[in-house]
Amino acid sequence: MSSQPLNILSVDVEDWYQAVSLLAGLPASERLHVAFRRGLHRLLDLLDCQGVKGTFFVLGMTAERDVSLVGDLASAGHEIATHGYGHRHLWQIPMEEFREDLRRGLGILRERTDSPILGHRAPQFSVPRDRTLEFFRVLVEEGLTYDSSVYPFGGRRYGLADRPREIHRVETPAGPILEVPLSVRTVLGRPLPVSGGGVWRLLPAFLIADCIRRLNRKDLPMVTYVHNYEFDPEPLRCEEGGIPRGIRSRRINFLQNLRRGSAYGKLRAMLEQFRFVPIREYLTAKGLL
Ligand SMILES: [Zn+2]
């Protein structure tokens, strides 16, 4: 087991319905939706059964409303990292607003755990293509050691196809920071995202396993990401978050629920076949921290 290549498990912890309310132009609700805890507990039970720890990128807005969340995750042995505060896409806001949002999110996490917060993931991997260096500089200035937001493929909304695929150091005027990019696989000469989300829901388990083996043969980790709400057995309904019933709500519900029931079994299959660790443990094992 110990000679197996290391892969990375990360979880973006948020209440899907909070994000939906913001999309609808409404304030995020004060109470977390029942789907938030149902999905999280099912995921945590799975990790506990498999004896696997992960890095949990916790959204500040969510941690604020569930005061025991960060402490519970940390005492279960998981790494706590930041997902910012308000799930604001960085391509839509000035860098100073990003800094404020990040500080607010970090402040809540630091109140709830004594472990240092080393890592950051941007909402929807929204690293601004025209301000990449400024983005990294803000992270360094706010005391972070690594980031895991770069998806090195040419996506329509997110993705930075020209960035390296391996873990690398980024030099900024404020100092260096490590980048832990999400994983891609080259198909017909083009990098395609294979780290999680809808791609994991759609790909059969044997193809995900094949992606992991190919990465590991190149001495690269699979950097997996999942969301807690993907493990809730009930369908997601964005109307409950305030999006009016219509074409948009049907589209969102369709995409979010497509093959969602397969997420649990696929993650379990990957945890059984491969070795996954938190980012901090991976970086330490590779002598990068
Ligand atoms: Zn998120």
Top keywords for this entry?
about 15% strand, about 290 residues, alpha/beta, binds zinc ion, five-stranded parallel beta sheet
In the CATH hierarchy, the third-tier topology is known as TIM Barrel
Q: Specify the CATH class.
A: Alpha Beta
Which word captures the global form? globular
CATH architecture: Alpha-Beta Barrel
Strand/helix succession: EHHEHHEHEHEEEEEHHEHHEH
- The CATH superfamily is identified as Glycoside hydrolase/deacetylase
Total beta strands: 11
Characterize the main sheet.
5 strands, parallel
Q: Average pLDDT across residues?
A: 94
Short note summarizing the structure:
The protein is of the alpha/beta class. It is built from eleven helices and eleven strands.
Description:
This protein is of the alpha/beta class. It has a single domain (6-285), classed as Glycoside hydrolase/deacetylase (TIM Barrel, Alpha-Beta Barrel), CATH 3.20.20. The protein contains 11 helices and 11 strands. The protein has helices at residues 16-23, 34-50, 60-65, 69-75, 95-112, 132-141, 197-202, 205-217, 247-257, 263-273, 279-285, and strands at 6-13, 55-58, 79-82, 119-120, 146-147, 168-172, 175-179, 184-187, 190-193, 223-227, 275-277. Strands 1, 2, 3, 10 and 11 form a 5-stranded parallel β-sheet that branches. A 4-stranded mixed β-sheet has the order 4-5-7-6. A two-stranded antiparallel ribbon has the order 8-9. Helix 2 runs parallel beside helix 10 and helix 5 (95-112) runs parallel beside helix 6.
